[in-house]
Amino acid sequence: MKPLKVALLGCGVVGSQVIRLMHEQHDDLAARVGAPFEIAGVAVRRLGRKRDVEVDPGLFTTDAESLVTRDDVDIVIEVIGGIEPARSLITAALTRGKSVVTANKALLAEDGASLYEAARAGGGDLYFEASVAGAIPLLRPLRESLAGDRVNRVLGIVNGTTNYILDKMDSTGASFTDALEEAQTLGYAEADPTADVEGFDAAAKAAILASLAFHSRVTAEQVHREGITEITATDVASAKDMGYVIKLLAICARSDDGRSIGVRVHPAMIPRSHPLAGVREAYNAVFVEAESAGQLMFYGKGAGGAPTASAVLGDLVAVGRNRLAGARGPQESTYASLRVHPMGETVTRCHVALDVADKPGVLARVAELFAKHDVSIQTVRQEGHGDDAQLVIVTHRATDAALSATMEGLRELDIVRAVASVMRVEGDE
């Protein structure tokens, strides 16, 4: 049959692996789709650079716009990342009827709506499995397999760099700085790790997950975001002593009344008995809780050239089949239009460590302040004596606004020398 022509934008870590897999699995892919794929061109920033890929050098070009708008191109794969020129190139391809496969989480989280609109106008497909959790089949189950169910919560580890850092801090007692340096040496962290350690990467992924799970448009700006740079070896050791582990979690959940959703990324303590506690190294894992299906867990490699390329090729097969059948895959679903509520309305729990004066009446005054803000205490214990006295408190569920007000009040109490640490708790109430 006539081959389906593919334009590739980017030939870096992921793009080179896409080319490798397309060559190695050429015959199998053709059999699965019903027609072979043929690389029409590869857009790169610089020509002449040595690349370890098996592709005709004449296919390389720096004119990405001309490549994606060529009449003979059927499918565009975008793996260059960033907002521009990716947005302009993808939009140009979609409006001309091309189908697009992208791994661009940042663009989808910032301006996915315009890409969906371009796909609708042009009549092509927009697939993006590789944008979240690498090789893990996660988005298609949310987008298709669970389309007949009601998803109530998505909870997981979606950034391998931060998971590696926190895992090393937990298993070896390393400081954040030492664990980060090790991650950079092994290639798990970039030279500038800001996007990972400050939670920007995870926030973009959370926005995509929430949009699909709750049929509502969510952008990265609406995601409450906290990073892990303030986590100390002492915090990790303290959590370990209590049977907890600290993870950077992406949490997308319906409110109790079902009228809004909360989308947040922040470090949290989870019990060591929880399945997410056992997710080690740079792996990802995500729980999806649906009314009929119950609790589902997706686990695997969340990053890397080959795993991400695997997800890209899965989408390539899907859009190739649709192209031959004259069909289209799922479009944007925003019928629910649920409000994204601010973090202050989110109901959560906290672990609080207070350096306090060791004298009678301390616990009563602290408990009184918690009660004033309608925050119920689940457990409390004192550690140390004299100048080393510390109260360790775990609360029941309360709004984040009430918890924040309580912390501010504690800092003003004369019996509290310092609020040593505040950490949200997930997964054990």
UniProtKB/TrEMBL annotation:
A molecular function (GO) term: homoserine dehydrogenase activity
Entries under Pfam families matching the protein: ACT, Homoserine_dh, NAD_binding_3
InterPro entries, per the entry: ACT-like_dom_sf, ACT_dom, Asp/hSer_DH_NAD-bd, HDH, HDH_cat, HDH_CS, NAD(P)-bd_dom_sf
UniProt keyword NADP, yes or no: yes
Annotated ranges, domain ACT: 351-424
Pathway: Amino-acid biosynthesis; L-methionine biosynthesis via de novo pathway; L-homoserine from L-aspartate: step 3/3; Amino-acid biosynthesis; L-threonine biosynthesis; L-threonine from L-aspartate: step 3/5
Cofactors named for this entry: a metal cation
Protein name (database record): Homoserine dehydrogenase
Organism: Nonomuraea harbinensis
